[in-house]
Please model this.
Amino acid sequence: MIALILRRGALSLVTLFLLASFIFFATEVLPGDALDVSLSADEIANMPAEVMARRKAELGLDRPILERYWGFLGGLLRFDLGRTIITRAPVGEIIAMPLRNSVALAGVTLLLALPVALAIAMAAAQAKGRAVDNAVSGAAIIGYSIPEFVTGLLLIAVFAVWWPLFPATITASTNDPLGVLLAAAPLAIATTIIGSVAYLGRILRVGLIEVMAADFVERLHLSGIPRWRIIWLHALPAAMIPGLSAAALYAASLVSGVVVVEMVFAYPGIGAELVRAVTRREVHVVQAIALAAAICVVLFNLLADLGIAALDPRTRR
Amino acid sequence: MRAALRRPAALLGGLLVVVHLVVAIAAPWIAPFAPTSLLDAPLEPPGATYWLGTDDLGRDAFSRLLWGGRVAMLVAFAAGAVAVLGGALLGLAAAYRRGGFDDVVMRLVEMKLAVPTILFVAIFVTGFGQSVPVLIVAVGIIQMMGVVRTSRAAGIVLMEQGYVRAAQLNGESGLIIILRELLPNVADLLAVEFALRASSALLLVSALSFLGLGISPPTPDWGLMVEDGMALLESEPALVLAPALCISTLVLGMNLAAEGLADALGLDAARGGGG
Model:
């Protein structure tokens, strides 16, 4: 098992290195560099050539791309993500608290959505083809057809405007303790949970139905074991495996969902930071956020892989 | 197709898609006003002249609603086409060649899965600017990875077939075999994939526009309309709820149609999607 952990961990590091390279080249390969975008056309026209050159040199934009690439990778190893173009603030400091807030939102969502999705998927699998299953499938298709920002909007319309139980947007600020922040964000959490339940429920239902059709389940049936026992004790662990292998996909979709939901509710996380960075072309901030998200997804996937290995001895080779 | 229409959910889905398509195509002729002209005082309430009222800049919200799906649908269908064509060729080539090429392709697919879709587009927009072609390419690449996986899996099964072996013994080149023997045999699968990818692309594009990273103003667009109208939810709910309803019914229609199509062709739609 330890050898396996080491091997999978090394593989994840390789993936992260490739992702970091992709993120760097996709954002910096074009010659139109960040300085041109952060200044207006007027400012560029009026700026003396030597001032422009000095600004570029300060930002390191005058160096060839490969040199900047090595600098970028070296910086990552020292946990130095660079500075912003306009305010020259360290990127790490800018994204640290928003990142904490987003991870908290995603974590709470996962903790609450997983049991709900599991219960729904089991009810549907137990009643395959009957009314319950059809209702669940119907609800799921509606659930993943409605964009998250529309779900959020509907929750605001119902629970904040027409029936003012909760605030529409979040009043807590970036550096508040997590408890205060999350307590101020019930509708945001509800929105991400709805998205996650639709997503997870669908994967788990398919997995459970597949397992329930397997030979070993048939054999358990014939030996007279009650259906609920088969589902809980035998089918569920087996169905966890396809569920876990979809974990990376789910983690990625959760991050995207969190970004959108944060913008709907003005939740102080990386979503707002990302949108601001892209529109101002703060390249280093976009890189740092993309990298942080990729690390989360790869880490989540690594844990899921190890979970599969623990559940299924066949993969431990 | 007829079998797909026998299912009421699929029929409803197809109908929703057709209605949205017809409205989008006919918008220039049926919209009462030009979608970008400033007509009247901002935030006129709904009435006989302006069916949904005017927006915060005094433009006719109903006309903007009729126009609002055009660019998003264009991006979604173009990205779906990019995804299906590129994904099928890559996936089938991986199935045909196997070995190192297959490893590289699958590694790329896995890597892309580790980057959340919205961040993937954000990276592209940062690097290449915010425009419709950039959007089509970025969303197309995102959707392509799923198509690579499904068509590779189908291609591996097809490689066992006698006629592929026969073509190889005939000395046909790899490209000819992929195009003439493998591609026609995954046509059904690709039709379903196209419907799924286009619907997922539309969902993504509208979310991006909502965030301000997708279609840019002043283009009339549902995602942008929702974003603009959010603050007015209390006073002018129609400005937000109408475009939200349009996006949701179109994506729902596409998903229902895709599932119906998959059902009719004997494929499993639930495997696709996501990302």
Observations:
- Chain B touches chain A through 49 residues (CB under 8 Å).
